[in-house]
Design goal:
The protein is mainly alpha-helical. The chain is about 60% helix and about 0% strand. The N terminus is likely disordered.
């Protein structure tokens, strides 16, 4: 064993009281690259979610001990790509998967490497079309509700008669595969990227919600909208009345509808000509 020299310590003890040692700065206040981070957890959460927070600060907050702070950084669209990659590789891939600021390359890697985060990417409008098309096999409802869903993917989802049974089994709701498929068509019917020919077919659906969504969709062709103006269900006609691309002739026809809700929707449509709106008062 090495000899331990105690004489310096003894001399120091005899020279007087031990000097007071000032505590160092809070590690969260000092930090990396000279970035000042507030000690308050709430303040750090606010800072982490602010899109105006500097990239260096977000990088420091990505290692914060508080999970909500790290999650806020993962959601923040201003978070640098390198920081998002760090978070994705350290248990926050599902959060990063929802970040609209994430690059297509990072989202593709998340899908390949982090299975638990695939549903998040399926909802992300920044996901590339080919990735969304692939994800639609296992997450059809998430992709159908994604504003970036490709038209060809929506057309395929509209043709589903029964969704994958294993997906339905994972749902909390008591729903059959056929009912789940209908719910997907409801999402497709209101999607503004839905192809006109698909909307035309969906206008003949037996489900009133599907027809209503087609009626309200600005992408619905005029001739298809005209058919729905004569629908037997007032709710479908009311949705046609709120369509921002309904023609004056269509709105005039709906203004004389026997259902008061339909007429009210005509009056509320910002594109309704003044003379039609005046006739309703």
């Amino acid at each position: 064993m090495d000899h331990l020299d105690l004489e310096p310590a003894a001399a120091a003890a005899q020279s007087g009281p031990e000097p007071t040692i000032e505590p160092g700065p809070d590690p969260l206040m000092s930090a990396s690259a000279g970035v000042a981070i507030p000690p308050s957890t709430e303040a750090r959460r606010t800072l982490a979610s602010d899109p105006n927070t500097p990239p260096d600060t977000l990088a420091v907050l990505a290692a914060d001990p508080d999970w909500e702070v790290r999650m806020a950084v993962g959601f923040n669209p201003s978070t640098p790509e390198a920081t998002l990659e760090h978070l994705a590789d350290n248990g926050e891939a599902d959060t990063v998967g929802l970040n609209w600021g994430a690059s297509p390359e990072l989202l593709t890697r998340i899908v390949a490497e982090h299975e638990y985060a695939r549903d998040a990417v399926a909802m992300n409008p920044s996901a590339p079309p080919e990735l969304l098309d692939s994800l639609s096999e296992n997450y059809p409802d998430y992709v159908a509700g994604n504003p970036a869903a490709p038209p060809e993917t929506l057309a395929r989802l509209a043709e589903l008669e029964q969704a994958v049974p294993t997906l339905v089994a994972e749902l909390d709701e008591n729903i059959t595969p056929a009912e789940y498929a209908i719910s997907i068509r409801q999402l497709v019917a209101r999607h503004e990227s839905c192809p006109p020919e698909t909307l035309e077919r969906l206008a003949d659906s037996q489900d009133a919600i599907v027809r209503s969504n087609v009626a309200a969709n600005p992408a619905t062709p005029p001739e298809t909208l005209e058919r729905l103006v004569s629908d037997t269900r007032a709710v479908v006609r009311a949705h046609a009345a709120i369509n921002p691309r309904a023609s004056a002739a269509t709105l005039e026809r709906l203004a004389s509808d026997t259902n008061a809700d339909v007429r009210m929707q005509v009056a509320l449509n910002s594109n309704t000509p003044a003379w039609i709106r005046d006739a309703l008062t």
